[in-house]
Amino acid sequence: MKTSLSVPRGFDFEATVKSHGWYSLPPFSYDVSGLKHVLMIGDRATTLCIAPRKKNALTIEFSSGTKPAIARAVRTILQLDEDLAPFYALTDLHPRLGYARKRGAGRMLRAPSAFENVIKMLLTTNCSWSFTTIMVNRLVDGMGARAADGLRAFPTPEAMAKKNERYYREVIRAGYRAPHLVKLARAVTKGRLDLEALAAEGDAEKLRDDLLELPGIGPYAADNLMRIFGAYQHLGLDSWCRARIKKIYPRVRDVDAFANKNYRAFGRFQGLAMWLDLTREWHEKELSPKEEQLTL
Question: Taking the domains of the chain in order of start, what are their residue ranges?
Fold first, then answer.
Protein backbone atom coordinates (compact mmCIF):
# COMPACT_ATOMS: atom_id res chain seq x y z
CA MET A 1 0.00 0.00 0.00
CA LYS A 2 1.08 3.57 -0.56
CA THR A 3 0.21 7.02 0.75
CA SER A 4 1.71 10.51 0.71
CA LEU A 5 2.38 13.06 3.41
CA SER A 6 3.05 16.77 3.14
CA VAL A 7 6.08 18.23 4.92
CA PRO A 8 6.80 21.68 6.39
CA ARG A 9 8.40 24.36 4.28
CA GLY A 10 12.18 24.04 4.41
CA PHE A 11 12.12 20.39 5.46
CA ASP A 12 15.09 18.37 4.21
CA PHE A 13 14.71 14.59 4.19
CA GLU A 14 18.39 13.64 4.17
CA ALA A 15 19.40 16.21 6.79
CA THR A 16 16.73 14.83 9.12
CA VAL A 17 17.53 11.17 8.50
CA LYS A 18 21.25 11.75 9.02
CA SER A 19 20.82 14.03 12.02
CA HIS A 20 22.40 11.30 14.18
CA GLY A 21 23.14 7.60 14.14
CA TRP A 22 19.67 6.13 14.70
CA TYR A 23 19.20 5.62 10.94
CA SER A 24 21.84 2.88 10.96
CA LEU A 25 20.36 0.97 13.91
CA PRO A 26 17.64 -1.62 13.24
CA PRO A 27 14.77 -1.58 12.71
CA PHE A 28 15.86 1.52 10.77
CA SER A 29 17.80 1.18 7.53
CA TYR A 30 18.64 3.76 4.89
CA ASP A 31 19.68 3.50 1.26
CA VAL A 32 18.86 5.02 -2.13
CA SER A 33 15.28 3.72 -1.92
CA GLY A 34 14.59 5.70 1.24
CA LEU A 35 14.35 5.27 4.99
CA LYS A 36 12.87 2.03 6.29
CA HIS A 37 11.53 1.29 9.72
CA VAL A 38 9.68 -1.78 10.95
CA LEU A 39 7.11 -0.79 13.56
CA MET A 40 4.37 -2.51 15.48
CA ILE A 41 0.78 -1.53 14.73
CA GLY A 42 -1.34 -3.51 17.12
CA ASP A 43 0.16 -6.98 17.18
CA ARG A 44 1.54 -6.85 13.63
CA ALA A 45 4.95 -5.74 12.39
CA THR A 46 4.77 -3.36 9.44
CA THR A 47 7.63 -2.24 7.21
CA LEU A 48 7.56 1.42 6.22
CA CYS A 49 9.60 2.82 3.36
CA ILE A 50 9.69 6.61 3.42
CA ALA A 51 11.09 8.57 0.48
CA PRO A 52 10.91 12.18 -0.74
CA ARG A 53 8.43 12.46 -3.60
CA LYS A 54 8.96 16.13 -4.31
CA LYS A 55 9.99 19.22 -2.42
CA ASN A 56 6.94 19.38 -0.20
CA ALA A 57 5.84 15.75 0.13
CA LEU A 58 6.88 12.23 1.07
CA THR A 59 5.80 8.90 -0.36
CA ILE A 60 5.23 6.13 2.18
CA GLU A 61 4.91 2.47 1.27
CA PHE A 62 3.70 0.09 3.98
CA SER A 63 2.71 -3.54 4.26
CA SER A 64 -0.20 -3.23 6.69
CA GLY A 65 -1.98 -0.75 8.94
CA THR A 66 -4.20 2.26 8.34
CA LYS A 67 -3.11 5.45 6.62
CA PRO A 68 -3.77 7.63 9.71
CA ALA A 69 -1.66 5.33 11.91
CA ILE A 70 1.16 5.28 9.36
CA ALA A 71 1.05 9.07 8.99
CA ARG A 72 1.27 9.54 12.79
CA ALA A 73 4.30 7.26 12.95
CA VAL A 74 6.08 9.07 10.13
CA ARG A 75 5.35 12.49 11.62
CA THR A 76 6.96 11.28 14.84
CA ILE A 77 9.96 9.64 13.15
CA LEU A 78 10.84 12.75 11.14
CA GLN A 79 9.73 15.29 13.79
CA LEU A 80 7.50 16.95 11.20
CA ASP A 81 5.46 18.90 13.76
CA GLU A 82 8.49 20.71 15.19
CA ASP A 83 8.46 24.48 14.59
CA LEU A 84 12.09 25.47 13.99
CA ALA A 85 11.39 29.10 13.04
CA PRO A 86 12.38 30.48 16.49
CA PHE A 87 15.60 28.47 16.35
CA TYR A 88 16.48 29.62 12.84
CA ALA A 89 15.93 33.22 13.92
CA LEU A 90 18.85 32.71 16.30
CA THR A 91 21.10 30.85 13.86
CA ASP A 92 20.66 32.85 10.64
CA LEU A 93 23.49 35.29 11.32
CA HIS A 94 25.73 32.93 13.28
CA PRO A 95 29.11 32.27 11.58
CA ARG A 96 28.92 28.49 12.00
CA LEU A 97 25.18 27.89 12.25
CA GLY A 98 23.91 30.12 9.47
CA TYR A 99 23.73 27.01 7.28
CA ALA A 100 20.95 25.44 9.34
CA ARG A 101 17.89 27.05 7.74
CA LYS A 102 19.24 26.72 4.20
CA ARG A 103 20.14 23.05 4.72
CA GLY A 104 16.93 22.24 6.60
CA ALA A 105 18.94 20.91 9.54
CA GLY A 106 17.54 20.77 13.07
CA ARG A 107 14.98 17.98 13.14
CA MET A 108 16.15 14.89 14.99
CA LEU A 109 15.38 11.42 13.68
CA ARG A 110 13.63 9.35 16.32
CA ALA A 111 11.96 6.01 16.73
CA PRO A 112 8.16 6.08 16.69
CA SER A 113 7.98 4.91 20.31
CA ALA A 114 9.60 6.48 23.35
CA PHE A 115 10.38 2.96 24.58
CA GLU A 116 12.59 2.24 21.56
CA ASN A 117 14.39 5.57 21.97
CA VAL A 118 15.05 5.01 25.68
CA ILE A 119 16.31 1.45 25.23
CA LYS A 120 18.60 2.45 22.38
CA MET A 121 19.97 5.41 24.32
CA LEU A 122 20.70 3.14 27.29
CA LEU A 123 22.67 0.91 24.93
CA THR A 124 24.88 3.85 23.85
CA THR A 125 26.18 4.44 27.37
CA ASN A 126 29.83 3.75 28.20
CA CYS A 127 30.63 1.86 25.02
CA SER A 128 31.63 2.29 21.38
CA TRP A 129 29.09 2.85 18.63
CA SER A 130 30.04 -0.49 17.11
CA PHE A 131 29.11 -2.28 20.33
CA THR A 132 25.84 -0.35 20.55
CA THR A 133 25.07 -1.61 17.04
CA ILE A 134 25.82 -5.19 18.04
CA MET A 135 23.55 -5.05 21.10
CA VAL A 136 20.66 -3.46 19.21
CA ASN A 137 20.97 -6.05 16.44
CA ARG A 138 20.84 -8.85 19.02
CA LEU A 139 17.73 -7.36 20.61
CA VAL A 140 15.91 -7.04 17.28
CA ASP A 141 17.02 -10.43 15.95
CA GLY A 142 16.19 -12.20 19.21
CA MET A 143 12.83 -10.70 20.12
CA GLY A 144 11.50 -8.52 17.30
CA ALA A 145 8.31 -9.59 15.51
CA ARG A 146 8.67 -10.32 11.78
CA ALA A 147 6.95 -8.24 9.13
CA ALA A 148 5.66 -9.80 5.91
CA ASP A 149 9.00 -9.17 4.18
CA GLY A 150 10.96 -10.93 6.92
CA LEU A 151 12.36 -7.78 8.53
CA ARG A 152 11.98 -7.50 12.29
CA ALA A 153 10.53 -4.74 14.44
CA PHE A 154 12.04 -3.46 17.66
CA PRO A 155 11.01 -5.72 20.56
CA THR A 156 7.88 -4.71 22.41
CA PRO A 157 8.08 -4.06 26.16
CA GLU A 158 6.10 -7.28 26.64
CA ALA A 159 8.63 -9.33 24.67
CA MET A 160 11.54 -7.83 26.57
CA ALA A 161 9.83 -8.22 29.94
CA LYS A 162 9.65 -12.00 29.48
CA LYS A 163 13.43 -12.25 29.49
CA ASN A 164 15.48 -12.25 32.67
CA GLU A 165 18.71 -10.47 33.56
CA ARG A 166 20.76 -13.53 32.64
CA TYR A 167 19.46 -13.42 29.07
CA TYR A 168 20.49 -9.79 28.66
CA ARG A 169 23.92 -10.50 30.11
CA GLU A 170 24.67 -13.71 28.23
CA VAL A 171 22.79 -13.36 24.93
CA ILE A 172 22.56 -9.61 24.36
CA ARG A 173 25.89 -9.08 26.17
CA ALA A 174 24.51 -5.91 27.71
CA GLY A 175 26.74 -6.05 30.78
CA TYR A 176 25.76 -3.67 33.57
CA ARG A 177 22.78 -2.53 31.45
CA ALA A 178 21.09 -5.94 31.81
CA PRO A 179 19.11 -5.25 35.02
CA HIS A 180 18.11 -1.83 33.71
CA LEU A 181 16.66 -3.39 30.54
CA VAL A 182 14.61 -5.80 32.65
CA LYS A 183 13.35 -3.07 34.99
CA LEU A 184 12.36 -0.73 32.16
CA ALA A 185 10.50 -3.38 30.18
CA ARG A 186 8.65 -4.76 33.20
CA ALA A 187 7.74 -1.32 34.53
CA VAL A 188 6.18 -0.40 31.17
CA THR A 189 4.43 -3.75 30.80
CA LYS A 190 2.93 -3.60 34.30
CA GLY A 191 1.71 -0.04 33.79
CA ARG A 192 4.01 1.53 36.38
CA LEU A 193 5.81 3.57 33.71
CA ASP A 194 4.30 5.43 30.75
CA LEU A 195 7.24 6.44 28.58
CA GLU A 196 5.03 7.92 25.86
CA ALA A 197 3.46 10.34 28.35
CA LEU A 198 6.86 11.08 29.84
CA ALA A 199 8.32 11.97 26.43
CA ALA A 200 5.43 14.36 25.77
CA GLU A 201 6.05 16.31 28.99
CA GLY A 202 5.94 20.03 28.22
CA ASP A 203 8.07 21.13 31.18
CA ALA A 204 11.70 20.54 30.15
CA GLU A 205 13.10 20.40 33.69
CA LYS A 206 10.42 17.96 34.82
CA LEU A 207 11.15 15.87 31.75
CA ARG A 208 14.84 15.77 32.67
CA ASP A 209 14.06 14.88 36.28
CA ASP A 210 11.74 12.09 35.16
CA LEU A 211 14.32 10.73 32.71
CA LEU A 212 16.97 10.70 35.42
CA GLU A 213 14.67 8.53 37.52
CA LEU A 214 14.69 5.80 34.85
CA PRO A 215 16.91 2.75 35.43
CA GLY A 216 20.34 3.27 33.89
CA ILE A 217 19.65 6.79 32.58
CA GLY A 218 22.20 9.35 33.75
CA PRO A 219 22.78 12.98 32.70
CA TYR A 220 24.31 12.13 29.30
CA ALA A 221 21.47 9.81 28.30
CA ALA A 222 18.78 12.10 29.73
CA ASP A 223 20.05 15.18 27.90
CA ASN A 224 20.33 13.36 24.58
CA LEU A 225 16.88 11.84 24.98
CA MET A 226 15.57 15.33 25.64
CA ARG A 227 17.01 16.48 22.32
CA ILE A 228 15.27 13.60 20.52
CA PHE A 229 12.02 14.45 22.31
CA GLY A 230 12.25 18.11 21.25
CA ALA A 231 13.60 19.71 24.45
CA TYR A 232 16.98 21.35 23.87
CA GLN A 233 17.75 23.10 27.16
CA HIS A 234 20.73 20.88 28.04
CA LEU A 235 23.91 20.19 26.09
CA GLY A 236 24.34 16.45 26.60
CA LEU A 237 28.14 16.60 26.56
CA ASP A 238 29.91 13.28 26.20
CA SER A 239 33.39 12.17 25.13
CA TRP A 240 32.53 12.47 21.43
CA CYS A 241 31.12 15.98 21.82
CA ARG A 242 34.13 17.07 23.84
CA ALA A 243 36.51 15.69 21.21
CA ARG A 244 34.60 17.50 18.46
CA ILE A 245 34.74 20.79 20.34
CA LYS A 246 38.50 20.40 20.76
CA LYS A 247 38.86 19.74 17.04
CA ILE A 248 36.67 22.67 15.94
CA TYR A 249 37.99 25.06 18.58
CA PRO A 250 41.60 23.90 19.15
CA ARG A 251 42.51 26.78 21.47
CA VAL A 252 39.88 25.78 24.02
CA ARG A 253 41.27 24.42 27.27
CA ASP A 254 38.22 23.91 29.47
CA VAL A 255 35.77 22.30 27.05
CA ASP A 256 32.78 22.16 29.39
CA ALA A 257 33.11 25.78 30.44
CA PHE A 258 33.51 26.84 26.81
CA ALA A 259 30.45 24.86 25.70
CA ASN A 260 28.25 26.28 28.44
CA LYS A 261 29.32 29.81 27.57
CA ASN A 262 29.41 29.43 23.78
CA TYR A 263 25.86 28.11 23.36
CA ARG A 264 24.17 29.97 26.23
CA ALA A 265 22.88 32.70 23.90
CA PHE A 266 20.63 30.13 22.21
CA GLY A 267 18.57 29.78 25.38
CA ARG A 268 16.15 26.88 25.24
CA PHE A 269 17.77 25.78 21.97
CA GLN A 270 21.34 25.58 23.25
CA GLY A 271 21.52 21.77 23.04
CA LEU A 272 20.35 21.82 19.44
CA ALA A 273 22.72 24.66 18.56
CA MET A 274 25.67 22.72 19.95
CA TRP A 275 24.66 19.57 18.09
CA LEU A 276 24.35 21.37 14.75
CA ASP A 277 27.68 23.10 15.34
CA LEU A 278 29.44 19.81 16.04
CA THR A 279 27.79 17.99 13.12
CA ARG A 280 27.94 20.80 10.58
CA GLU A 281 30.37 18.90 8.37
CA TRP A 282 27.91 16.01 8.10
CA HIS A 283 25.59 18.28 6.16
CA GLU A 284 28.25 19.89 3.97
CA LYS A 285 29.49 16.73 2.25
CA GLU A 286 28.67 13.06 1.87
CA LEU A 287 29.41 11.12 5.02
CA SER A 288 32.47 8.95 4.93
CA PRO A 289 32.17 5.38 6.32
CA LYS A 290 34.08 6.47 9.40
CA GLU A 291 31.77 9.44 10.03
CA GLU A 292 28.72 7.24 9.64
CA GLN A 293 29.76 5.41 12.81
CA LEU A 294 29.23 8.53 14.89
CA THR A 295 26.15 8.84 17.03
CA LEU A 296 24.74 11.05 19.71
Answer: 2-83, 114-229
